[in-house]
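Example 3.2
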Amino acid sequence: MMVEPFNPPPYPYHRLGALRSAAETLPGGLVDCSVGTPCDPPPETVMRALAASDTARGYPESAGSTEFRSAAARWLERRFGVSVELDGITACIGTKELVASLPQHLALRHPGRDVVLYPAVSYPTYAMGAMLARCRAVPVPPLTPQGDGLDLQRVAPGDIDRALLLWVNSPSNPSGGLTDLDAAAEFGRAHGVPVFSDECYSEFTWEGDPQSILQFQTTGVVAVHSLSKRSNLAGLRVGFIAGDVDLVTYLTEIRRHAGLMVPGPAQAGAIAALEDDDHVREQRERYRDRLQYLADLLGAVGCSVRLPAGGFYLWVAAAPRWSDSWAMTADLAQVGGLLVSPGEFYGDAGAGFVRIAAVQPMDRLELVGRRLKDAGWISG
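Structure, written as tokens:
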């Protein structure tokens, strides 16, 4: 049987190159809200910890230092009221590499399984991770037209039987919706499917308190956390997983053999960030203000906009003035200098929407508002 070679598809955000160039030509330049890259400064305590760390010369532990894992455990207890032993926590180089490599690692443990279940409207790396492992990426239908939640009742029994894992993401990127994590944990328990819960936006939960799947059970589930969004440390590449000790121990051993290690100074910075909640409260207010401004701006040009239940993205259906989300994306870039992402980047079910990341300072967002008003898109 012939096996076709794998040719990676174009990276989604690279498809915006021409629109990026068009926006850059406007006076004042590009306002890039296409990617969730934080623009605000990390805490000074983190920068001091990075500079003071004396760990650069030696190889760090793949699992992370005892100090780093202890800081993660304290944060989980403080934020979610859950207790996780240190053997149930391991460091990640950010979390995107974990998302992309996880199906490969689990497939080695379960060679008879080849299905990765993931939200139909979601971060594209869940599906790409399945592709890289030569597994089948099976989208779980959403509960709402906006792409919120998981309709686990609609997963085919055959796919459940062959499932390596179920991904959940709450708050959701891109929709901003919240998922019933208790129901996801119960699904995994009932069917013997490990559940990995990507909770990197949990600190930016707007409706109710932040939640973790670890509040509902710790057997068969793993929570995935990152410092990138919480502490504006995307460039530091530090995250961790926590939960089922057997699963985490297995993944730690794989990562040790593969040489996957978070640099020691980066761990020192992450410890400082995890111990400090004040900077997160300040960041929450920044994102709340930007989301409201963008929602009002898009509403003024005819879009039906809802504020997210969590996260720092607006998930906006293309207004009637545009034929589709790509037309809306093009007009926003060429007229307003605002670069956003078409919804199809996040799955077929996302077609017709655009995602707008509230990651630019308010003065840059106000520049977009002035451009749209000058163009006659906004009256008054």
